[in-house]
Amino acid sequence: MIAWEAAFRIFGWGWKFPSALQTAQAFLDGVTTGKLLGAILASLGRILFSFALAVVLGTLLGFLFARFRWVDDTFGFLVVALQTVPSIAWLPFAIIWFGLNDVAVVFITTIGATWTMTLAARTGVLNLPPLYSRAAGMLGTGTGVRLFLQVVLPGSFPHLMTGVRVAWAFAWRALTAGELLSRGLGLGQTLQDSRDIGDTAMILCVVLVIAVIGTVMDHLLFQSLENRVLVRYGLSPERKRSLV
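^ thats the sequence. predicted structure below, dont judge the formating
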């Protein structure tokens, strides 16, 4: 912080890049007026809905590809291709189809995470040991929904949790990009409004808030859940090292 403030004063960045004090003041003003908190809550509301939708859709599609070989052979390559396309590339279609509203943002965010989740679910099922299905059959689990809920889904958890963590990162980035052109509250829209008036302190403040929220969610929630699942299945790095 001290080096940042000193560099601002020594090099005379002016309005093009804010000082540490200006950024801190912008944060305090945003919290005091409620503008920044409102934007954070609006963005979190959109990301939670979009992310949950992406996880459900991606998991179902992944299991479908893994279960039916002809579906995987026919459409599997399409999912891989779609994953390489940045979600922001769908923004023009989202605007044409839905307009500048929350639906367009939700669409962009969901697209950003669905394909990653699909590939993770597909990998999880395909790597499921055949012994699980045979043992389930001997124990009377049968097939269909019961086998899916009691064997396939729990057995795929390690890959699913990794997919969830990566999908969150994709969804969080897609959300901010989509909000840049949406209307109403949101961190992306706050970035756009601040750019329009040249408020670089608020721009940097929002960027830091986005980085902090993304990092906190990844490390405190998703990484923690992933580690617990890996430990539960005996796949943690510590467990692997002890077996070497």
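The domain at 16-243 is CATH 1.10.3720.10 (MetI-like fold).
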